[in-house]
Automatic annotation (TrEMBL):
PANTHER family: EXTRACYTOPLASMIC SOLUTE RECEPTOR PROTEIN, PTHR33376. It holds the Pfam family DctP. InterPro entries: DctP_fam, TRAP_DctP_sf. PROSITE patterns: PROKAR_LIPOPROTEIN (PS51257). The gene is dctP. Keywords: Signal. This is TRAP transporter substrate-binding protein DctP. Residues 1-19 form the signal peptide. The keyword Signal applies. It comes from Siminovitchia sediminis.
């Protein structure tokens, strides 16, 4: 009986020890990793997103040592572009790669991103970045930073332009970002969704379009376009936004890591896009497009029109923040 009791006791100790070891070593990685969903305003295979978004995702995985795991669920095919800003606000998705062109009607102050003459790191130093973060806070978001690098807009045409006045009366494919600019130079803005631009050009429904340097050649639009006016205007307005509740749930260290790695990413994007833009100019010329340059007088006139039109719009749509934003950017 004593021998039997001893064996039972020994088995109990062994089983107890196994249970203790299993509990301490079998930590659930789901409890140690924060999994977040990311959406982009453009499809996953678009020239602006296919390389850039993964670069940021990899940077996050590396610099947080896997503490944050990101899933890029897609672009408009997953959540319509015009609904993505609200989706981040409401927590339907955690992080959005978006542009203010698609949420400026909700947050008009975001259009000031276009008007900044500064590099992203300069905006972090002069107070603009912090001021914008205070505005995004009202929409339950944290503004991590920019993501499109140097990417201004251009006007592309099928009419040879000798001067700024030659744009008068032309039908130019537009979007809300530069409707007012086209109106100010007496051109006719025509809203056409990107998927219909090629056909609109081919059938002469429009005489040209507005768009950044990257995209038109990749989308085939240069096949039905003859000229690009080498007069870049407005700053890029790509933003990385994270739901505030999600951000607040992260440790202070992870919050700081996200902000700091995005600041580094902004500098990488400038170098990246400078190189890509240089290559794109060559591709555009090889596609047969001719570059048009405005005279010094017309160039100055056009840039002044862009600046005043946009600041006037800001004054009307965001009167409470107009003065401070202009003080921060119009130096």
């Amino acid at each position: 009986m004593k021998k039997y009791s001893f064996i039972l006791l020994l088995l109990a100790v062994i089983l107890s020890g196994c249970g203790t070891e299993d509990t301490s070593s079998g930590s659930d990685t789901s409890n140690d990793t924060t999994k977040l969903k990311v959406v982009s305003f453009l499809p996953m295979d678009h020239q602006f997103t296919k390389d850039i978004v993964p670069m940021w995702l990899e940077k996050v995985a590396e610099e947080t040592n896997g503490a944050i795991e990101l899933e890029w669920i897609g672009g408009p095919e997953s959540i319509p572009t015009e609904e993505q800003f609200d989706a981040v606000t409401n927590g339907l998705v955690d992080i959005g790669f978006n542009v203010s062109s698609y949420y400026g009607h909700i947050m008009p102050e975001s259009h000031s991103l276009h008007l900044s003459p500064f590099q992203p790191w300069e905006e972090r130093e002069n107070g603009y970045y912090d001021y914008m973060n205070g505005l995004y806070d009202q929409y339950n978001m944290v503004y991590l930073g920019r993501w499109l690098g140097p990417n201004p807009f251009y006007f592309w045409t099928n009419k040879e332009i000798g001067s700024l006045s030659d744009l008068e009366g032309l039908k130019i494919r537009s979007n809300p970002t530069y409707h007012d600019i086209l109106t100010a130079i007496k051109a006719n803005p025509v809203e056409v969704v990107p998927g219909d631009v090629y056909t609109s050009l081919e059938r002469n429904m429009v005489d040209g379009f507005g768009f950044p340097l990257l995209g038109p050649n990749d989308s085939g639009w240069t096949e039905v376009t003859k000229f690009i006016i080498d007069e870049p205007f407005l700053n890029q307005n790509g933003t990385i936004l994270i739901n505030k509740d999600v951000y607040s749930s992260l440790s202070t260290d992870l919050q700081e890591t996200l902000v700091n790695l995005t600041a580094e990413f902004e500098k990488e994007m400038v170098d990246y896009f400078n190189k890509v833009n240089e290559e794109e100019w060559k591709a555009i010329e090889e596609a047969g497009l001719q570059k048009i340059e405005l005279s010094e007088e017309d160039s100055e006139k056009f840039q002044n029109i862009v600046k005043e039109v946009k600041w006037e719009a800001m004054k009307e749509t965001a009167p409470d923040h107009y003065e401070e934003l202009r003080n921060l950017l119009d130096k």
